[in-house]
UniProtKB/TrEMBL annotation:
It comes from Flagellimonas flava. Belongs to the trans-sulfuration enzymes family. Pfam families: Cys_Met_Meta_PP. NCBIfam families: PRK07811.1. One of its GO terms (biological process) is cysteine biosynthetic process via cystathionine. This is Cystathionine gamma-lyase. GO terms for cellular component: cytoplasm.
Length: 391
């Protein structure tokens, strides 16, 4: 009964309604509006194979299904898959490949993603080329007959470069490659890679989708049934699934994604502008600035510029950067991003420590760089905090 009512027109909803209703239906047992946390590993069967759609929670769990449907809906895909972490979602994508295959990847990407590619998968015979992708044409020279996948992170972590997804997608289609986009920083509120031609969207849902710094969850969304089947096979065979409690919390986070992102963008803009005018600040990296090298692409493919900002102080000193992050009081010095609370990080020693210094400095991740995840507090309190910390 519920399913039919709800199938009606949910695909046609606008984004701010999809976050709340997309792929959702009241629970079949009692009509609960939020899906119960089905904290079970297994399901009773009347005869072998005689079950109600669920047999073992690694393969599927109703709370996770509710989250996976929501993920598919907000990214304009057809199939969503929820994993135990962002990295395990990436792990599943790379397991689509075989020894001998090659991947062309963004060079300025989350340190853990780099570590997974280099230190886990290269030893299984998969080769990764890390390159700057702001000029999409430059990617083509790294493609050969062994290339199977292009991995794009945009905006990049932590340098806030923006990569033209449409242009990379044209290249991927020309060479019959898969294109995967890590959409963690932008979220589907700002950018929907599948609409721009990507085959796979990936999230560290730990960040903006969950939104409250209380879960570690990963997500993949695709349109194509065959690709979805391959990924479901890997998800079940490798087993890095998202548990029912984390599924529930992430689903709850998604319901307010649009209102949180609106405020993240407003606060991000105010703080980027404040830092840009500060006499002690050398450089601010935020794609909303007109003189950001990829501003036009950002304006074209994103609905706003987000709340992630990186900056360096004049003199580019490591000690100054450390002093600032230690003095912050409303911003918390911590790994991660995308929660309601503002966080500050020192990428060289925290999120990007697993990238060798010479490699990370090539893409701008110098010892003096500070990264801010601007939260949704009162922006005047955030500015006052930066004022006292920068001095
Ligand atoms: C852009 C990006 N991708 C992937 C990840 C990995 O996600 P997780 O920490 O959920 O495994 C992170 C984590 O910080 C990230 O920032």
């Amino acid at each position: 009964m519920y399913a039919d009512q709800n199938k009606m027109s949910k695909k046609d909803l606008r984004f701010n309604s999809k976050t709340i209703h997309g792929g959702q239906q009241p629970d079949k047992a009692y009509g609960a509006v939020m899906p119960p946390i089905y904290q079970t590993s297994t399901y009773a069967q009347s005869t072998p194979g005689g079950h109600m759609g669920y047999e073992y929670s690694r393969s599927a769990n109703p709370t996770r299904t509710a989250l996976e449907n929501a993920l598919a809906s907000i990214e304009n895909g057809n199939y969503g898959l929820a994993f135990a972490s962002g990295l395990s979602a990436m792990d599943a994508v790379i397991k689509l490949l075989n020894p001998g295959d090659e991947v062309v990847s963004t060079n300025d990407l989350y340190g853990g993603s780099y570590r997974l590619f280099k230190q886990v998968f290269e030893k299984y015979g998969i080769t990764f080329h890390f390159i700057g992708m702001q000029d999409a044409a430059a990617i083509e020279s790294h493609i050969n007959e062994k290339t199977k996948l292009i991995w794009v992170e945009t905006p990049t972590n932590p340098m806030m470069n923006v990569i033209d997804i449409r242009a990379v997608s044209a290249l991927a289609k020309k060479h019959q490659l898969l294109l995967a986009v890590d959409n963690t920083f932008a979220t589907p509120y700002l950018q929907r890679p599948l609409d721009l031609g990507a085959d796979i969207v990936m999230h560290s849902a730990t960040k903006y989708l969950g939104g409250h710094s209380d879960v570690v969850v990963g997500a993949l969304v695709v349109k194509d049934k065959e690709l979805a089947d391959q990924l479901y096979f890997i998800q079940n065979a490798s087993g890095a699934v998202c548990g029912p409690m984390d599924s529930f919390l992430t689903l709850r986070g998604i319901k307010t994604l649009h209102v949180r992102m609106q405020r993240h963008c407003e606060n991000g803009k105010a703080i980027a502008q404040y830092l840009a005018k500060h006499p002690k600040i050398e450089k601010v990296y935020w794609p909303g600035f007109e003189d950001h090298p990829n501003h036009e692409v950002a304006k074209d493919q994103m609905n706003g510029f987000g709340g992630m900002i990186s900056f360096i102080t004049k003199g580019s000193s490591y000690d100054d950067a450390i002093k600032i992050v230690e003095k912050l009081q409303v911003f918390t010095l911590a790994e991660s991003l995308g929660g309601v609370e503002s966080l500050a990080g020192h990428p060289a020693s925290m999120t990007h420590a697993s990238i060798p210094k010479t490699e990370r400095e090539k893409s701008g991740v110098v010892d003096a760089l500070i990264r801010l995840s601007v939260g949704i507090e009162d922006v005047d309190d955030l500015i006052a905090d930066l004022e006292q910390a920068i001095g």
